[in-house]
Amino acid sequence: MNERTEPFSMPASFNLLWLQSAGCGGCTMSLLCSGTRELTAALEAVGVRILWHPSLSEESGEEATRILERCAGGELSVDALCVEGALLRGPRGTGRFHRHAGSGIAMTEWVKQLAGVARYTLAVGSCAAWGGVAAAGENVTDACGLQYEGDQPGGLLGANWKSRGGLPVINIAGCPCHPDWITETLTALALGAFGQQDLDTLNRPRFFADHLVHHGCTRNEYYEFKASAHKPSDLGCLMENMGCKGTQAHADCNIRLWNGNGSCARGGAPCISCTEPGFEEPGHPFHETPKLAGIPIGLPTDMPKAWFVALAALSKSATPKRVRDNAVADHQVLVPPVKKTGLK
């Protein structure tokens, strides 16, 4: 995040309200794995107070509805409205495919009301950000994100909508999103250390979206030599044959590890670019790399195709036997040789 000259101020209370719309609840499950410190204590340490969360709070039924009513009416202030899951606008714009239990009111209406009074609104996960899995296929429910429909601005709230705090919807994209992306965004907002300059062009927090999943990948030596895996258990690079989009996906998954020690690529699964709009419908199986004339279609975002082809040919011709053999094995077959290098 950018440096600021003004000092941070600890708020007396930064009220968080969380709604779950059309989704699997995976982002909440991810949030519960936020490090070794107890979640609510970590949030309370920076002034964040959970007014209500459908999975974490005791209130349900009429009690929960009353909290929403008090927030919408201004009786309870809402500093951060977090919405998890896509917004279902159907049928025919009524939103009645998803009504909030107990109130009978469409979830889309609750979100519009509460976003109107909240200081900041956050889309937690790619479903809430872009529509995600819920919007795939024929999208009979007319699912969308809070302020995006796929990669097009709009969504439920509209392209030009801004919160009372002056920011558009903050898109904490991912399927699911990393727990730290949620807690660090909330922390920065609570401390007054987050502004428009901290969002990328798709309104994702830059502290994770300014990285690529490729950064820090343990398979980078194989990528450099274009020594590729051919099956999930192979150690080689997953880009050429296995559908990995780590060179194109904006996230810090291999720098900020999941549960302290893992990532998709480290577990043998290709990056499916789940922080990007439209990831749910790549047009090909997730574990396969589409090619044209033998060249992968999805190349690094900022590398000209001709350069990639030339460098790939050179890299493959210079691949050490150790790297080439290890790339198609499920364990290290050849180890780096021990030899004098002339270095002191």
Walk me through what this model shows:
With 344 residues, this protein is an alpha/beta fold. 25% of the residues lie in helices and 11% in strands. The chain folds into 2 domains: 14-209, NADH:ubiquinone oxidoreductase-like, 20kDa subunit (Rossmann fold); 213-332, Cytochrome-c3 hydrogenase, C-terminal domain (Cytochrome-c3 Hydrogenase, Chain A, domain 2), CATH 4.10.480.10. It contains 11 helices and 11 strands. The strands form 4 sheets. It has a 5-stranded parallel beta sheet with strand order 2-1-3-5-9.
Beta-strand proportion? 5-15%
The helical percent reads: 10-25%
Number of strands: 11
User: Can you identify the CATH superfamily of the largest domain?
Assistant: NADH:ubiquinone oxidoreductase-like, 20kDa subunit
- Name of the level-1 CATH class of the largest domain: Alpha Beta
Gap from first CA to last CA: 39 Å
String of helices and strands: EHHEHEEHEHEEEEHHHHEEHH
What's the domain count? 2
Strand order of the largest sheet: 2-1-3-5-9
CATH topology of the largest domain: Rossmann fold
Overall CATH architecture of the largest domain: 3-Layer(aba) Sandwich
Overall structural class, as computed from helix and strand content, comes to alpha/beta
Unreliably modeled segments: 1-8
Number of helices: 11
- Rg over CA atoms, rounded to whole Å, is 23 Å
Mean pLDDT: 92
The largest β sheet comes out as: 5 strands, parallel
Task: Provide keyphrases for this structure.
single chain; 344 residues; alpha/beta; Rossmann fold; Cytochrome-c3 Hydrogenase, Chain A, domain 2; 2 domains; five-stranded parallel sheet; two-stranded antiparallel sheet; 11 helices; 11 strands; disordered N terminus
